[in-house]
Amino acid sequence: MKTILAFRESEYAWVHEKFPCVHPLLLPLCNKPFIEFLIDFAILAGSSAVRILCDGGLGEVERYCEDGSRWGIDLSYASIHPDDSIHAMLGKNRKFCGEERVMIVSGFSFIRYDKRYDYKSFVSSMPPGEWSTCPGGRITLTGVPTKAVPDWLIADLSLMPLDSMTSYYQASMETLKTGESRYVLPGYGDEPECAFGRNVVISKSVEIRKPVSIGNNVQLLGNAIIGPSAIIGSNVIIDRESSVESSIVFDNTYIGEHLEIIGRIASGNRLNDPKSGASIAMEDPHLLSGIKKNRHLRSLPRKIVHACVALVIIAAFFIPFIILWPLLKLGGHWKSSPASFLAERTDETMPLAKVEVDASGAAAAIAVALSLDRYFRLFRVVTGQLALIGSTPLLAGESRPDAPAYVPAYLPGVFSYAEAEEWAATGGDATIVERFHLAHSNPLTDIGLVIKAFINRFQEKSTI
Amino acid sequence: MTITETSKIGIAILSLYGTLDALSAPELRNNRSIIDPEKTVVIDLQQVDFIDSSGIGAIVSASRQKRQPSGGIVLACMNDRVRKVFEITNAQKLFHIFDDTTAAVDFASSRQSASA
Amino acid sequence: MNNSNITLTLPAERLFARVARQTASSVADLVIGDDRHEPAGRDFSHAFELAVSEAFTNSVTHARESATPQVVKLTFFFEQRQLVVSVHDANDPFTIETPVPDIESYPENGFGLLIIRKVMDHVTYRREGNYNIISMSKTL
Amino acid sequence: MNFTLDNIDGRLVGTARLEGRLDAQNSKPFQKTFLEWLEKTPLLVFDCTLLDFIDTSGLGAIVGCLRKALENKGDLKLAGLNDKVGMVFEITKAKRLFSIFASQADAASSFASELNPGTT
Description:
By secondary structure, chain B is of the alpha/beta class. Helices cover 41% and strands 30% of the residues of chain B. Chain B has one domain: STAS domain (Transcription Regulator spoIIAA).
């Protein structure tokens, strides 16, 4: 059997409008893109090949689904016209359909199925024609049945239109509640109604109330309350004292402190009310924001500001450096070893010496307090390879859970934003501070943060 | 590139072989069946191993030559490479695209008789 | 082919687009290695070939009439999983920020730079002296 | 911003119509203007029908206004929040601090109904 999944741009225009960052067919439903539910269903129904038809672009869908080998089927793509009937679609894909029975799922609608039923036998015994319909969607079969319908054969199935944010919200919540038993959902853990992705950092005081679904690289900070009925995507930060209940949070979203998200869909800096359809773009980074590479990060003015400040520091610390460095080097307290770090473009690496100053003795203590161990790196700011302040440079090849492959923002710096905050020394907390500043800082705040980092390092080291 | 032209129930079928680029595009542009505004043409792209923007441009302009731009040129048997370039340029929106030449000819002939 | 440069100087004529393209495709295949049999490898190679074809054709189309024959120079290099090609010509300066053509009006031209921008990861244009240099890269 | 005083059943209620945006740019001067209104009466209504946008500074300013009204033994009520502004109030928990009404008239008359009949 073969399956055709057919869509028209007009059916999912609302998704483009409300969630412009995601291709409508990849709209997340619970913790999986919408199209995957349909592919799963096609497979349960016994398809060996699936073709996705659309009158709009399918490039992103193709990049995500590729040739279907992930599911063990042949997946192909073709284009149709907005006014093509099912008959016309079959004509355009005559070779694909061949002599086999074809199931056509058309319309932007969600199939409520249950993986425990034997859809394969069902499909092969169904007469041709419409199987199930809903406003804007239908499942049709062509060809003749190959089996007689046994008396006992039943299969639970219904279609639900995804024609608005409201229906999308309902479908997501329904999938979250009935998900694991009915659908094929990714997620780890033995706990029912609780699906977690990789690398989820949960602070101690976080409260999680089932059912919840949480994606990869999610950070939940102190006293956050998640759920009941929270669907959280990947690369999400929920800041302190905030709660997310009966809500959907899309990938790459930052939810600020002390917020209460109840019955909402948050996508980047956009907050949506699925009931009224209202949608507001927050301009205020303290509320919601999209986590992505801050455009200022790579901007020339920022690089210039960083380079100038670096030059000032280089000049100011030249004398202590020129005195202390040879002294420490001779005494064997200054150890420098070559290493390779991930560059700003994370597919590149850069050589950068690792300096360790053995802080015994007054000279070494002063050197560390003045951050002289970072002195050489300042020159890299002038050449534009490093930021003055940014992320802690990551060693190339080091597998860290917060490695930039997972994180959309990474900017190696001489100082790290984490060092500018007292509370976030290492680990998950440091990452969150870095991510926050990488998303929100600008050249001017950077100068302030560099000074803070300096003072913090100074206080820390001079008290040892 | 070589163009093999056959005809079935009054529909011209142009089968293209090889590369459709800036060098070979004029050959398609100047083809008699392409220039004829009344003629419905099916272009079979199965054997096109490379197409670039000049090739897309030639097919789009062929369509503009026709009395009915949206139906005068019907495309058939796009391979993955060709389909990707159509997808990038969004030109697939302008055409009816079939995965089988016979089906494309059936469609073209129904179009032609409807407009005649 | 780490750290080695391949430079190709071709007459600015349409005929040579194929040489440019085949070189691009061979270089890409070399870099991909065994993955060229995988769909992702084939896509990489095709994208690279397409971009080089478009850039070369663009240079040829805008080549100036002059007594001395014009040339287009291509330089390929591979570094840190990134395949880079720069296309060098002596034409008038231009901008790569062209608008996306409106498909509904059946445009014949203007797809070239759109294709380049879509299939490559990074595209930069710079003017050095009397030369245009488009540099394009794609990460494996 | 326009400010009007109405006498509702013997109580002087001031209504300010907020317009456009209330954000970091204008929240300071707004708080100053508010003090002038507060001198006239501590019973105030912000009619937000024409308020399009509010951010954390704006929200902070309105909460500040409420605090001052309460200190003066009055109250500040909000009316006519559109969906967008309403959502900002909701997610920040600020909604709980205020009495919110659908219209300015409802808000203003609520001051009158709060009167204890025995004291006047």
